[in-house]
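=== RUN LOG ===
request id: a7f3
mode: sequence -> structure
chains: 1
length: 296
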Amino acid sequence: SPRMVQELGRRRTVHLGQTDNAVTVDGILDEPDWANAQPTEAFLVYPRQDRMARADTRVQLLASATHLYAAYTCWMPAGAPAHGEQRARDTSLADDELVELFIAPPGLKGGYYQFLVNAAGSVSDKRVTLTTDKSGLPVVKRDTSWDAGGLEVATRRLTDRWVLELGVPFASLGETPGKGRWRVNLCRDHKAPAGARELSTIMAPEAKDFHDYSKFLTLVSDRTTGVDPHVQINVGQIREAVRTMDDRVATVVSLDLGIESNRVLHGVELTLEAYDATGRLHTRQAGFTVPHVRFR
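=== RESULT ===
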C-alpha cells in the first residue's frame, strides 16, 4: 500500500549482525549466523520508489573482526532463469542480472565503495571520493582501478532464485566499524527473459539516484538475532454445499483465505486440518503452497 511504502522510506533500518565464527563464502548460507541475521527486504522500484519490487530481494549483513559479509537472495519472478556470464573484473555487467552494494565508511567523508556482482559471480568494484577543484567546487572522482584486495565472492543459481555471498576484508576499506557513522545502499538490477528490466533499492523516494550519498541508510551494528515472522491468516466467506460424490453424499465447505506477514515470505506451505463436533482431529492433509506472501 502507499502508506506502507511511505513508512518503509521513513523508518527502514539496515542491521549489521556480529559474528565471532568463521564464515565460508560458498553461496550456501548454512552458517547459523546467517539464520540469525536480521534481513533487509521489500525493495522499492526505482526511480520513484512508490511501490514494492516484483522481483523480491533479501539482504543480510554480518561483520567479523576482519570482514564485512553480505548475503543477497534474489527471487526470480515465475522461476525465470537468472542470466549472468563470467566476465573479467571491472568490465560492464549491464546485460546481466546483478546486485549492487554501496558502503560508505566515515573515513571517506562523503565517498563510498561500490560493488556490482552478477549472477555468475563476476565483479565490478570502484572507489568514489569527493574532492574540490581549484575554485573550491566539489568534484566526484570515480576510481575504477581500485579493487578490494582479498574480496571473496560466490554465487549459486537455484530453481526460483539466485544467491550471492560476498566477503569484503575491512583492510581493503581502510577501517572497521566502531567509531563514526557507516552508511549503505542496497540495490538490484533485475532482467526478465522477455527484456523487461526492474531496478530496485532500499532508498527513500527522495533519493536522486543510487549514488545519492545523502540518502544512504545508516548501518546499525548489533547482536540482536532476527525474529520469526508474524503471520496472520484471515478466514472469510465460508460456504457450505451438499454434493453427491461417486461413493457418497458429502457436505463440502469452501472458504477464502487471506495471509498477512510482517516479512516477505516465500514457498509458504499450508496444512489443512478438519475436526469433528467433539474436537477430535478427523483428517489432516497438505493443502497448497503459496509462492509469495508480500510484506504488509
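=== NOTES ===
The mean pLDDT is 91.
The helical segments are 2-11, 32-36, 170-173.
=== END ===
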